[in-house]
């Protein structure tokens, strides 16, 4: 299903829904692009407008320089979003996308009070509780080993020299963004937060996901699924249905 590029410099891939339908904004994981949410659109497009963030330096923005800082990335995305208190947004971010979505949520609440209905976060500790790491400084072989552990795969594509030359710099920069990011002291939002995670994720435990409750003045829920960091691939329909519930938009089909 084709998407319309929209927003300043094409930050968003818009899949239009019915007039006045709720909006869902999806934020990809480190190394991921807008295509990582392509399977969500058929289930939701009849009931919601789906906007998927396309970070610079990947897919159809491959030739653009990657984001320099988490703050600059969030500023640009927030500026590109259509904001309206009459048509509030739900944000969903997976892994690194959770942190990006949180920073965007803060900017939405500052510029458009009432414009954020809910923040949904997946497979990433709350910003103030995230452990310090330096994966972005590892040699290529060790970075690849970390990627394999996270994805739970032995994919030989990661051994390909040309693939590494093309894609590892962008992935390394995403790791740098998340590992050098420091949230403002006491940073929080007023909108409710819903957290999602895999029970066997090697990088984040359910009890760490619960700490997202500390950054919202609203309600908090946590859903745990079997599987690892990319549990949502194995529980696609369940996760989409849960997110649709927060949109007030039952899954079609």
Describe this structure in words.
The structure is a single chain. The chain is built from 8 helices and 8 strands, in the order E-E-E-H-E-H-E-H-E-H-H-E-H-E-H-H. Strand 1 and strand 2 form a beta hairpin. It is an alpha/beta fold and 253 residues long. The protein has an 8-stranded mixed beta sheet with strand order 1-2-4-3-5-6-7-8, sandwiched between helices. The protein has one domain: 3-Layer(aba) Sandwich (Rossmann fold).
Give the terminus-to-terminus CA distance.
15 Å
Strand and helix order = EEEHEHEHEHHEHEHH
The main β sheet shows up as: 8 strands, mixed
> What is the CATH-assigned architecture?
3-Layer(aba) Sandwich
Mean pLDDT: 89
Are there runs of 5+ residues with pLDDT below 50, and where?
Answer: none
Computed Rg: 17 Å
Give a nutshell description of this structure:
This protein is of the alpha/beta class and 253 residues long.
Q: Which structural traits does this protein have?
A:
hydrolase, Thioesterase II family protein, TesA-like, eight-stranded mixed sheet, alpha/beta, 33% helix, TEII, single chain, 8 helices, Rossmann fold, AB_hydrolase_fold, 253 residues
Walk me through the topology.
Blueprint: E1 4-6, E2 12-15, E3 23-27, H1 41-44, E4 49-53, H2 70-80, E5 89-94, H3 96-111, E6 116-122, H4 140-151, H5 161-180, E7 193-198, H6 206-209, E8 220-225, H7 231-234, H8 236-247
Parallel strand pairs: 3-4, 3-5, 5-6, 6-7, 7-8
Antiparallel strand pairs: 1-2, 2-4
């Amino acid at each position: 299903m084709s998407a319309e590029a929209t927003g300043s410099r094409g930050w968003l891939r818009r899949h239009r829904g019915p007039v006045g339908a709720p909006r869902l904004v999806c934020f990809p994981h480190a190394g991921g692009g807008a295509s990582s949410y392509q399977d969500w659109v058929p289930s939701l497009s009849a009931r919601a407008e789906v906007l998927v963030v396309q970070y610079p330096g990947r897919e159809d923005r491959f030739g653009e320089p990657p984001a320099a800082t988490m703050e600059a990335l969030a500023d640009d995305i927030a500026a590109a979003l259509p904001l309206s208190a009459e048509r509030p947004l739900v944000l969903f971010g997976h892994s690194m996308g959770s942190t990006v979505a949180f920073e965007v949520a803060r900017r939405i609440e500052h510029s458009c009070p009432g414009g954020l209905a809910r923040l949904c976060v997946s497979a990433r500790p709350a910003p103030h509780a995230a452990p310090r790491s330096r994966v972005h400084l590892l040699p290529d072989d060790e970075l690849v080993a970390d990627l394999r552990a996270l994805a739970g795969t032995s994919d030989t594509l990661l051994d390909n020299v040309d693939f590494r030359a093309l894609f590892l710099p962008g992935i390394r920069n995403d790791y740098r963004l998340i590992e050098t990011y420091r949230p403002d002291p006491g940073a929080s939002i007023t909108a409710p937060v819903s957290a999602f995670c895999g029970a066997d994720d090697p990088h984040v435990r359910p009890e760490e996901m619960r700490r997202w409750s500390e950054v919202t003045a609203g309600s908090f829920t946590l859903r745990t699924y079997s599987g690892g960091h990319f549990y949502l691939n194995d529980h696609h329909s369940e996760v989409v249905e849960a997110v649709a519930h927060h949109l007030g938009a039952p899954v079609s089909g």
